[in-house]
Amino acid sequence: MSASTPPAEPPVSEEELSVLRARYRAERDRRVRPEGNQQYQRAEGEFGYYAADPYADPEFTREPLEDRVEAAIVGGGFGGLLAGARLRQAGVESIRVLEEGGDFGGTWYWNRYPGIHCDIESYIYMPLLEEVGYVPQWKYAPGEEIRQHAQAIGRTFDLYRDACFQTRVTELRWDDAESEWIVTTDRGDRMRARYVVTASGTLSQAKLPGIPGIETFKGHTFHTSRWDYAYTGGDADGNLHKLADKRVALIGTGATAIQVVPHLGADAAELFVFQRTPSTVDVRANRPTDPAWASSLAPGWQRERRENFLTLVAGGAVEEDLVADSWTSSARLHQSLLPSDGYRDVAPEERERALEVADFHKMNEIRSRVDALVADPETAELLKPWYRYMCKRPTFSDHYLQTFNRPNVTLVDTADTHGVERLTETGVVVGGREYEVDCIIFSTGFEVGVSGITSGRLPVHGRNGLPLGEAWREGPRTLHGFYSHGFPNLFQLGPLQNASSVNFVHVLDEQASHVAEVVAAARRSGALRVEPSREAEAEWLATIREKAADLYKFHAECTPGYYNNEGRPRQRSESFGDGPVAFHALLRQWRTWGGLDEVLVEAADGRGWKESADAQ
Ligand code: NDP
What we know:
Blueprint: H1 14-31, E1 40-42, E2 68-74, H2 78-89, E3 95-98, H3 107-110, H4 122-125, H5 129-132, H6 143-156, E4 169-175, E5 180-185, E6 190-198, E7 205-209, E8 220-223, H7 229-232, E9 247-251, H8 255-267, E10 270-275, E11 281-282, H9 291-296, H10 301-313, H11 326-336, H12 348-373, H13 377-382, E12 395-396, H14 400-403, E13 409-413, E14 422-423, E15 427-430, E16 433-436, E17 439-442, E18 446-447, E19 460-461, H15 468-471, E20 490-492, H16 504-525, E21 529-530, H17 534-547, H18 552-556, H19 579-592, H20 595-599, E22 600-601
Parallel strand pairs: 2-3, 2-6, 4-19, 6-20, 8-17, 9-10, 9-17, 10-13, 11-12
Antiparallel strand pairs: 1-7, 4-5, 5-6, 7-18, 14-15, 15-16, 21-22
The structure holds NADPH dihydro-nicotinamide-adenine-dinucleotide phosphate.
NADPH dihydro-nicotinamide-adenine-dinucleotide phosphate is lined by residues 31, 117-120, 203, 209, 211, 251-257, 274, 276-277, 393, 414, 419-420, 443-446, 561-562.
């Protein structure tokens, strides 16, 4: 362990732990709502306004396409861009990215709210830095820099050439005779593709709380993922000058709100922050990139740095903590309390106790930080999170908590009323009191797991017209999370039956690289179909089940949120339990030791892929 190993913590007694457990349980019980996810509503229909694209050309039209590409990619965020880049590197010429937004960027296209930054270090989060020849300007990059980097990837890998923006894929249908997919869209397209990769994101559909009276509010309103700068003035750097005479309500205090609040507090005449559960707000310590460091980087530096972070946060040991931030210090704290190096050599009870003790110290530190930064003791009390560290998405800010010291900023706690009670024509009601406001901003997050093919929102018909939903009646079945029997040449990127990490873009890159290698092997061999057997699927399912981390108990004790399915934790995890490092090693082994042969299906007549005359 490096010199920056956390100092030894004082021992914690069983009694202290049990007092804390009881407090956590009580705080959870105050917030659990019997409706679970049903408390939210979609930003569609009469609320479609909240999800409209403020950036794209509303007049845009084009002729429908009926052509053929080798690879169609659904989604132009980092998943889709990585799939495109890795396929390009594998020699695929004909690639089309289909994207609902007006440009590449995904999350970073939609979210442009004031203060937007990525809270994972830029040098490991922003993909393909060495390939694009770029070193980010800050340790934690602003959203605009990340969005521009997404565009740079599009240019570097020539992905703009065939891209279709402002286009939503409405159906994927396998044509057995031609061994290719028919891709239909909301622009009347009916294009064909040998391979389809879906990368439609995990947190991409804005959600609204089902607050009674939400439709009656007569003031201005929008969701953070569609920030209305025409109303607020300013830009992602702040200076929201049009709010100088406005009373603003912000609903929600998750990772987005933590970044927005300092700007609203600085610029609005009055700001009311409606909180149901406080976030953990840890140290940010952003800083500009040291040019000497940037110019000293040797080839391969990004891979090494990403692996270092991934290993550490997945519970592994590293010689030196290269990223050295609040994410890794929590991971190191956990490890320092274990009796030996690494989590997996330790008996489960011993490990659980060490994790709980580490959590105890971490959360006390988080709560002490609130006392140190917030002047009013009552407000400070309300801002303290009472749950275990990973119950909710951790957040980081050196400005959020201090904003509550401003005279124009009021924190309104809604824990006892299970959130905001009601909206009226003129404001927000909590505890029987109406807070009159000119504008309500919803920082209420996104639907989880509703996009793409696994949710059924994008209908998929495989061989013999079989709908994916039917093939998965008893639950999803994949090999390694990527592909399914009966659905040839369809690859999905995402966490399902795969691996995950807080640096999810790294995981996406590993997935994209794997898919590109599989496609390259198919092209080399002339195989027309990539498709796992039922047996391979069944084996993978058994592996997932056997290795599944048992998070049920942990999540059942947590305050509700999207990590625990709003207080109704799922019995079974659908992720590879040994974590991403082991999963990536497993994929490498699988490719080296003949796995590819298992999924490549030869065409009866031996035909391989040939670019046809009408390919773009
Ligand atoms: P979240 O889902 O994290 O937060 C939604 C907030 O709305 C919560 O505070 C929630 O309270 C609150 N809320 C919901 N309903 C009500 C209600 N009826 N009354 C009052 N409050 C309510 O959304 P975010 O947009 O903040 O973040 C979503 C995810 O996006 C993050 O978890 C993270 O993964 C990602 N993100 C990443 C960033 C990065 O830098 N990498 C930055 C921003 C977001 P409660 O907690 O009680 O449910």
